[in-house]
Amino acid sequence: MSKKIVVGTDFRAEADRAIDRALSLAEEWDAEVILVHALDPALGDPPSRGELDRRMRSVLPHPDARVTFRYPIERADLAIVGIAEEEQAMLIVLGVARFNNMRDFFLGTAVDYVIRHSSIPTLVVKSRPVDSYNQIASATDFYPPSRYALEDAADLFPDADFQLIHAYRVPFEGWQKAAYVRNEVREAESKVFREFMNELRPETQKRVTPHLVYGSPGGALAKEIRESEAGLLVLGTHGESALRHATIGSTASELLRSLPIDTLIIKSGDRD
């Protein structure tokens, strides 16, 4: 079965970044790109097929790129999920709706819907592609979905190195300020981290550098992403409502909005 990547576009500049990344990944993976532009039935008769094709070609970096066009007459989020499942795609690629500033990415309803309702890994692209994803950051809370996401990402990007990040805090920190308490918590977290690493496949372990960081998940990830120059963040989720059940907790949607890094959401599905 051929590999397929589904990418959505509304012809805005933000979507061009997703298209460029999808084409770059397709070249690496020898995959076919299916470019989806949903037509709103409320807007009346759609443009001709020829006009739509010309518009689609205009957003491609190379006019002869290996791309199939689809023009469903349906709400964009429903269309993207439906086509990805119908084509048994390996990946969905989407751009953010807009950039308010470097720490405020408005995802938009289509991205939010796809992340919540599709079982297919979804890549949210924020940056214009420059290089392959050679350095990848992955968040973990030591629960299985984060392990599944890391292993799946390692399969997708076999040449990448991974920075595995776990953030921790001292419980009831305001009342437990003694240094020995913080040291005990760190030792306990380190033990669980070692156990988590041992559960990874041996070939994955060799490519992973663990980082145990004191602080909030957002702050820890931002620090390690900056220092490692990672180009991609991987988040694992449970099978339902991806953002609500993200392995890094309720901060997942905030990370998607605030971190200026492409983010891959991988659901654990029935593996929970």
From TrEMBL:
The superkingdom of the source organism is: Bacteria
Q: Which SUPFAM superfamilies match?
A: Adenine nucleotide alpha hydrolases-like
Q: What CDD domains does the entry give?
A: USP-like (cd00293)
InterPro entries according to UniProt = Rossmann-like_a/b/a_fold (IPR014729), Universal_stress_UspA (IPR006015), UspA (IPR006016)
**Residues of the UspA domain:** 1-126, 133-267
Kindly list any coiled-coil regions of this protein.
none
For this protein, the record's Gene3D superfamilies field holds: HUPs
List the PANTHER family hit by this protein, alphabetically.
Answer: STRESS RESPONSE PROTEIN NHAX (PTHR46268), UNIVERSAL STRESS PROTEIN UP12 (PTHR46268:SF6)
Protein family: Belongs to the universal stress protein A family.
Q: What is this protein called?
A: Universal stress protein
Q: What is the organism field in this record?
A: Erythrobacter aureus
